[in-house]
Amino acid sequence: MKKKVILFLSITFVVVMAAVFIRDVVNGNFSTWPDALGRVLFSLLPVLLLFLKKIPFNLPLIISYYLFIFCTFFLGAILKFYDRFRWWDTMLHFFGSVFAGFVGIAIYKLLLPNSVEKGISRWMIFLFVLTFAVTISAIWESAEFLGAVMGFMEEDDNKDTMTDMLTGLAGAIVVACYAALRKRAV
Prior knowledge:
The chain has helices spanning 2-26, 33-44, 59-78, 81-84, 88-111, 114-117, 122-149, 158-182. By secondary structure, it is mainly alpha-helical.
């Protein structure tokens, strides 16, 4: 079931992103190819999971990934929500960091044997999830900066960058607290 959902969502997103790119080219906008390539690659990322014998992420997390890239790429970039709603970018940085925190929890559970997990303190899971989510948030912001430097994205000022980073930190703290409180006391 999980593999079929991944395949269906990946193919659907690739087709939609390719259709948007073809529409742009037909309308004479050839400058969108870096964005289109990035959107297709992000749409295919979960397909890499199909090569694993056991997919480490649950179905709600995989569906959340596609919901997040739908909000980012389709609503945000293609339908111009970033331009129409000033809060859109900030909201996506918050929820992107929350999503990254849940991915961190899944990776933590995957990599840590059950016998060892019982001896780990709440603070350790808190720090792992916080660090993981903040790192992903920083990488995302760095990619935005590089996109602006290379001319693929609009340039943002320092205030926008810091707002995005602080919003990402807030989302990471929320999920890290959730993970720490969810763990049974040692």
